[in-house]
Task: structure prediction
Amino acid sequence: MSATSVDLITQEIVEAALTSAAQEMGGALKFSSYSPIIRDMEDFSCAIFTFDGDLVAQADYIPAQLGAMSLVVKSVIKEWQTDINDNDIFICNHPYQGAMHLPDINVVAPVFFDGEIVAWAGTAAHHIDVGGVNPGSEGPDLKELFAEGLVIPPTRLYIKGEENIDLVKTITANIRDPLSTISDLRAQRAACNLGRNRLLELIETYGNAVLQQVFTNSLDSVEAAIKYRLRELSDGVGDAIGYLDDDGRNGPPTKVRVQVTKLGDSLTIDLSGSDPQVAGAMNVPWSSTRAGIVYAVRTVLAPELGTNDGLLRALNVICPQGNVLNPFPPAAVSVRHNTCQRFADTAIRALVDLWPDLQVAGSSVTFFGCNIGTTSPSTGQPTVLADVVGGGTGASAEYDGLDGVDTYMSNVGLMPVEVLETNYQVRVLKTELIDGSGGIGQHHGGMGIRREYQILEHSQHATFYAEQTNPEFVALGRNGGGDGEPAKLTLLDKNGDIVPIPSKVSMDLEPESVIRVETSGGGGFGLPER
Amino acid sequence: MAQEYWTISIDTGGTFTDSVARADDGTMLVAKVPSTPDDPGRALIQSIDVLAGQGLDVKNVHIICHGTTIATNAILTGQFSKVALLTTSGFRDVLAIRNGTRPDIYNLRVPRPTELVTRENRIEVRERITRGGEVLQKLTDNEIDRVIEELRIIQPEAIAICLLFSYSNDDHEVRLATKVREAFPNLSVSVSSEVVREFREYPRTSTTVINAGLRPIVGSYLEKAQQSLTDSGITAPFLVMQSNGGCAIATRSASDAHRLVLSGPAGGAAGLIQLAKQHQISKVIGLDMGGTSTDICLIKDGLLPLQSSQTVNDHTLLAPSVDIHTIGSGGGSIAYADITGRLKVGPISAKAVPGPAAYLRGGNQATLTDAHVVLGTLGNSNLASNLTLDKNAAVRVITELAGKLGRDVTETALAIVSLSVAQMVRALRRVSVERGLDPREFTLVPFGGAGPLHVGLLLRHLNLGRALVPNLPGLFSANGLLTAGVRLDAAQTLLTPYAVNDIESYALWFAAKHLELAEKLSSDGVEQNQISFETAIDARYLGQGYELTIPLTPTVAGIADLPELFHKAHFDLYGHFSVYQPIEVVTLRTSAKGAFPEIPPAPLEIGNQAPEPQALIGYERVIFPDFPEGIDTAHYQRERLLAGNILDGPCIVQQMDSTTAVLPGQRVTVTLLGDLLIEEVNS
Result:
């Protein structure tokens, strides 16, 4: 496409219109979806892509999804090439074809103008269940992708505007709560259609040539801004190591190592010192590692900058396949987000190793998740409770950490008790901040959360997991600030007696058993006042 | 003719308190006095004194209506009462955890959200109600006594009670509240099932706490104001504008203090409805631009757009509020070059102090106002409030910025204006296009001090048919207050599947509420034949988390239409619907409205097509975006224009409280009511 001159004002206006289109898509998805994990906890993302799949604009929901989604669009383009038609909508949750783990289903739509693809609108949303051996389609101890759930490669959810009934029937037959999942997919489609309409309106106003040039400029300017920022900073080498509690199967700790070299305006990120891929489901598919890199770099270098794929152009990344951060298929990946959070924490530490002015204390990487195969009190039908509990964030030179929030690459909300109990045969006995869990310091680390779930009515299969339970791997304080407290997972039987469990588990629970999670606190910053 | 009665409206803003008094013969008096944030009531009384000095007969005031920022400011500045919060045991941190997300995901150094109730003032109460409203753990009298003892130690200024699932069974809340009120007869006690009976514990808790924290402040303010008015000889009902765009009697407003958070901007919205009615236009976009921000509000078919929830200084507030979209763009917005050398404007503002450089009050950063001074759009003479604009100072700061951008002064000033206009255009599109409405069908109404300055550019960039600049744009919000009428809302959360058998009970609920609300309105002095109702049911597909508000007739036949209306609304919004999925009835809503007697505006004297010679101030060179060399531009005095006058663009119309800038190719017609109708000539 030939270069069209776009003045700065038009650039600014169209860029903002793209972001607001992505935000609007998010609104349509949130307000018309069924599952609390989407509608109340906002575990979804929306973005706009170039004709060849680079992400150019996003609504700031979940960095772990946003930094990966363009790989799905690129997979769709690669798989379907010339057989992509107007009003087709594609679906994909394949972690080895751009997606992150099976519950995160991507739904993406090409935007056609004058018979050609000019852009894409896409969504990723966490679904409560996509089949597999465990309700919720996650299992720390699983060894193969095939056990984790239904793998959907890039396929057509809608063919020229018509729902692809064969596919929908196949999905319906393989999942535990089809009404919720199929309805949530329709909400994703509504969001994609809305995004497409907004792009077509922009083309009507400014013309496609201008839109394409805005895309190019937008990617270029993020790349330039990162390079500009790098040039401002001193050269050097950073190196950080972080550990996961185990490998997902109660094995030894798994090492994540990030080495960075900054010279002039180039930044090399070398992950090859991390452990080889592991037996359990803690492996991180490349798409999620890529998202972690985008997150760590933007957060340390330019939080205020818009994100798009231009950022990656400024980086040189080394991560051989077979590494826990880039596994060979069909390694299981369902609990990859725990590794992602640890990776983000480690990458940020490696970067601020170079530039102490930018340092902050460590945040919680507990990322407690639970999936409980339960029933709906109103319909009696099987469904899955999927909840996530955040922890404390690290303090900085300026501020105390935040209490009880999802951290780093994730930003999933806590399910309201009144929503949870109305939808599932589970009761919440307690949701509170944990006194003293944040590291002390001139500025305190944020507090972790204690939440208790009680199983009601009938035996229910639960998968739940927490990281950072090992006191050696807590959120680190900085500049004399204290470390955060580790996380703790406790199972109580119906008599209130403690049942010993590892930090990641999948098991049947009898009525009245209680899962108690205590997430970790953030690190403190600076010496505490005496 | 002697004036039989007067109405007064007083709008307290951040900088000025504006007031308008109107008599039944059409006489209108206006006053603008500096606001007195330390004691807002003082400016209220000063306003009355100024109006009385101009001929207002305080003894014959029939209604006085007030728009206030007292509630907003209390939250924003942290001058919030010391609240004790009573929660279900195990859940005292619901208020602190909020929804568990971070506002700024890419930033690891962010301030903590403000805390409305400190942790030690959140008391847990041993009790538990289930989702179905059954009692799981009974609230005992001993427990209530224990809680009261804890309260005595805390010594709060107000008490909020929010227990889990109280929307489905309020028995524990009510019993607790009764005992607490007996123990603390002088404290206001806010109970979630009374304040906002809706589900999801965090927004309900936060709203109840906001209500509790504001009640003492708003209550004492309104009480003092009422007393001062009485002392001034005014015995008329004292009404306060609520966030929902209707007024309520001041004595009742204190207990509904959380409903006053958007009291200020709601007056402008009410004014827009009135203006649309006078001009018989169905679609209006209002743009209220002040020094630091711009409020945008879209009115369709004479109806106020309402939203059920908003965020105020980090906190969620559930209260029907006029849907106003605010952007951080105002006359004082600061322009700067970012790290990549690109021009940015706002959202940081120079505010009133130090203000734009041209004000010579110590401002040394380039602002939007300075750009207009450089371009000549703002004239170089004087503004309202005896402020003189200094062009040299404006040129100096814009030149400095131009150096960083590598451009010349004119280019930079034009770029600042264009960027600001682009932000406004985006916001205007956000409230129109993004809701599926074509802005080209709307009439733009710019008001506030800086709105009319951008009317020409907005008209052109949005490709709008026309714009109306109201009489006295700076006093538009104050003027709007009285047109709103009284409004009371009622709601009941049900969360039950829609069933034909229940229709009758819904109709009965509406009927009973209507009687109750009508009684309240008539005790506020509204005539029975002036009362009307708006009813709606919030519904969703069973399993969805958010509902659509479906307006309907509250009769058995009307409620029976709910499924059909709901499927259609869902399809219109999201592109799909399913008649096979059950519908859930979430909330029944009704609001009662009582109109005030209307005083018709006095028409303007009719003149010729050509303005009178004395209306022309003179010609000055003004730079417009497509005319960087500048054009000789006529400057008119608005107060000297007559109905029927036609002014060709480019022209600048100056008046006491605002400046209207019209582009080449546009034309101004002065309407019979004195508003300026602005259109593109070739459209």
Summary: Chain B has 17 helices and 32 strands. The mean pLDDT of chain B is 88. Residues 399 and 409 of chain B are 5 Å apart (CA to CA).
